[in-house]
Write a structure and sequence with these properties.
The protein is α/β, with parallel strands linked by helices. It has 2 domains: 133 residues, Aspartate Aminotransferase, domain 1; 228 residues, Type I PLP-dependent aspartate aminotransferase-like (Major domain) (Aspartate Aminotransferase, domain 2), CATH 3.40.640.10. The protein contains 12 helices and 13 strands. Helix 10 packs parallel to helix 12. The longest helix has 23 residues. The chain is globular. Bound molecules: pyridoxal-5'-phosphate. Pyridoxal-5'-phosphate (PLP) binds next to helix 4. Pyridoxal-5'-phosphate binds next to helix 4.
Length: 371
């Protein structure tokens, strides 16, 4: 057996390639402004922390399906926030952060050699990783309804998109769901930035206008990492087709893929409160506005970016030249080719740094223009 039978199927872990640029940026006298990974930096809201602490005395095993209270919170939130009518407990499943689900879903669906998993041409890299982990073939698309459906078992949608911030319209989603159902292709729609629309109002695949009020063949993926600053808690969930989720539940029970009980309690609190989501949105809105203006003033063009936590920006040059240029200003960003070769002239700028760091970046971008 090869010493690396599975990991050799996977791409190089992209963030390792950024390390030298991080050193350059860190040498800036006023320190690095890290706009690369997009990790939340603002405090966990007080009511969520209180719920976590109140559930700290949890000596027993949690269940994979979660508490009744958690399942009620998931169906209630999806009805209220996504317009998903009539969801029952059989239509929900908590997961240990959505990255885990994305990476292991094709394996848990029993996919393998000869099967295809499709994802947007510019995409969060874990869709491809998930396909490769089980030996399926990843296929990139521009318009999913133009894919060859033969052998296609799983179709990933992502709206709002990481990295571009593009939002799929109601019409695009409806057309895609109809196409997938016609061809018997399972749709998983990653909607983890849905509550962060700026110039667009993102719509869930579970909205009755899109799915016709039935969840057959469709599942939406949601995460509390960004909307509630809970990336450190690993709190996410999927909603939709009961048959698919029932199968995943069986497998995940055998695999012990449980959310810790205090995190389940924290999730219930987070989904029951809209105030902290609005406060966090306001922080990101301000950072996004000033960063966008500073990038444009510095000569960047920003494309899409109408939702989510990233500015998709270009100076019409190879992305690594832009990464190097910004690293010399002490600003670290992600090269667009991390998200597919089609991104090789863009960089992804996260708006997830503190106000103080964002303002430092804005000042450096302005100074470098006038210098
Ligand atoms: C599109 C997309 N899906 C899923 C995730 C994973 O999020 P988490 O594992 O924190 O729920 C991310 C994280 O950045 C993402 O951008």
């Amino acid at each position: 057996m090869s010493a690396a039978p599975v990991s050799s199927r996977l791409p190089v872990f992209p963030w390792d390639k950024l390390v030298p640029y991080k050193s350059t940026a860190a040498a800036h006298p006023d320190g690095v402004v890290d706009l690369s990974v997009g990790t939340p930096v603002d405090p966990v809201p007080e009511l969520i922390r209180r719920a976590l602490v109140s559930a700290a005395d949890s000596p027993g095993y949690p269940t994979v399906w979660g508490t009744e209270a958690l399942r009620d919170a998931l169906t209630g939130w999806a009805g209220r926030r996504l317009g998903a009518a009539g969801l029952e407990h059989a239509n929900v499943l908590p997961v240990v952060g959505s990255k885990e689900l994305v990476a292991w879903l094709p394996t848990q669906l029993g996919l393998g050699a000869g099967d295809k998993v499709a994802h947007p041409r510019l995409a969060y890299p874990t869709y491809e990783v998930g396909a490769r982990l089980c030996g399926a073939e990843p296929v990139a698309y521009d318009d999913p309804t133009e894919l060859d459906p033969s052998g296609l078992r799983l179709l990933w949608l992502n709206s709002p998109s990481n990295p571009t911030g593009r939002v799929l319209s109601r019409e695009e989603l409806t057309r895609t769901v109809a196409w997938a159902r016609e061809h018997g292709v399972l749709v998983f729609s990653d909607e983890c930035y849905l509550e962060l629309g700026w110039e667009a109002e993102p719509v869930s695949v579970l909205h009755p206008d899109v799915c016709g009020g039935t969840y057959e063949g469709i599942v939406a993926v949601h995460s509390l990492s960004k909307r509630s600053n809970l990336a450190g808690y690993r709190a996410a969930f999927v909603l939709g087709d009961a048959a698919v989720l029932g199968e995943l539940l069986q497998i995940r029970k055998h695999g012990g893929m449980m959310i810790p009980a205090p995190v389940q309690a924290a999730t219930v609190a987070a989904l029951g409160d809209d105030t902290h989501v609005a406060e966090q949105r306001a922080r990101y809105a301000r950072r996004r506005t000033v960063l966008r203006a500073a990038l444009e003033g510095h000569g960047f063009r920003v494309e899409h970016s109408e939702a989510g936590l990233y500015l998709w920006a270009t100076r019409d040059e190879p992305c690594w030249e832009t990464v190097a240029h910004l690293a010399r200003l002490g600003i670290l960003v992600a090269p667009g080719d991390f998200y597919g070769p089609a991104g090789d002239r863009f960089v992804r700028v996260a708006v997830t740094a503190t106000d103080e760091r964002v303002d430092a970046a804005v000042e450096r971008l302005a100074k470098a223009v006038s210098a």
